[in-house]
Amino acid sequence: MVNLYNMIRLALLLVSISIPVSVFAVTTPENFTGLIYFFLDYIKLIIPLVAALTVVVFLFGLVKFIALVGGNEKEIENGRRLMIYGLVGLLVMVSFWSIITILQIEFGFGDLFIPQLPIK
After folding, report:
1. Cβ neighbours of residue 31 under 8 Å, at least 6 residues apart?
2. Predicted structure pTM score
3. Quick one: which of 58, 97, 112, 110 has its CA closest to 81?
4. What is the rounded CA–CA span in Å between residue 111 and residue 76?
5. Are 42 and 25 in contact (CB under 8 A)?
6. How do the domains of the chain map onto residue ranges?
7. How many CA atoms within 13 Å lie on the side-chain side of 32?
């Protein structure tokens, strides 16, 4: 089960991933619109990373579930629980992505919110 210690570790991991983005930022926001775009850039970086993490959790649970069929019932239940956590995480990420897209379109900050990995 997820405890507070693991949630704190995940939050620190996400913060440590986002620090280089802020350190090497070329421009700083000069007005409110620039600030919104600044945060949208962060969100565009974080959503794919968290979505990939949830897919990895789901696949890990799936492998654990399949590999231990006929074995330890507690570990099989643990694998099933990891798959459920992964699916719920993906659902939350897709919902968050949809809400951000709707808000972005309604307030005129762009057409579509399509997060992409910063690969150039």
Report:
1. none
2. 0.59
3. 58
4. 44
5. no
6. 31-120
7. 1
